[in-house]
Amino acid sequence: MKNILLLTALSVSVASFLVSATTKEEDQYAYIDTPVKEQPSDLLDDDSDGVINARDLCTTTPEGSELDNDGCEYFIDSAQTLGLRILFTNNSYFINPVFKTQISNMASFLDEFPETSIELQGFASKVGQADKNLILSENRANAVRSELLKNGVEENRVTIVGFGDTVLDEKGSDEFSHAMNRKVVATVIGYKGEVKKEWTIFTKIGK
């Protein structure tokens, strides 16, 4: 019986010690309120792409396109190439009207791909003096440049270079070879962005 009373008294003493130990001033902690999450005020999704306006950096994404974390569509670059080849008569830089369509098409191409520019390369046949052929090749390139500018192409997007008779496609000395070497040529490559479509259960997978 004495042992029971002794154990009871000891338990009460320990409990009292623990209560007093946990209520000391140095063991008290300041109460911290539960953080409140800031909710964006604009929860609308104007382009219906699943990204709210508050987070959407591209608010006009095409319907069904695959998106990145900022709500912008992915693009696939597909290269398109357009060439220009204009022939001239001997000792002339007059552009035959038959080539005006080529120039017009090139102007439209440059308008469609505003990030591109073009270098017009002028050439001459191996007839006459080399120094005069160099000037002639530059005049031919400048003539084509002028026509492009008339079709709305900006000046800073068109440069010219004359090679004279130093570069010949046709090595012969006949009239056909000379005619093929009196020319202005150019090639432009543009990249048109195609939207990458979002995968759905109806998407076909290549075999």
TrEMBL record:
Under Gene Ontology molecular function, one entry of this record is: calcium ion binding
Report the InterPro entries cross-referenced here: Bact_OuterMem_StrucFunc, EF_Hand_1_Ca_BS, OmpA-like, OmpA-like_sf, TSP_type-3_rpt
| Boundaries of every OmpA-like domain copy | 75-192
Q: Which GO terms describe its cellular component?
A: membrane
Task: Please provide the record's keywords in A-Z order.
Answer: Membrane, Signal
One protein family per Pfam: OmpA
Q: Provide the leader sequence positions.
A: 1-21
Q: Which Gene3D superfamilies does the record associate with it?
A: OmpA-like domain
| Name of the protein described by the UniProt record | OmpA family protein
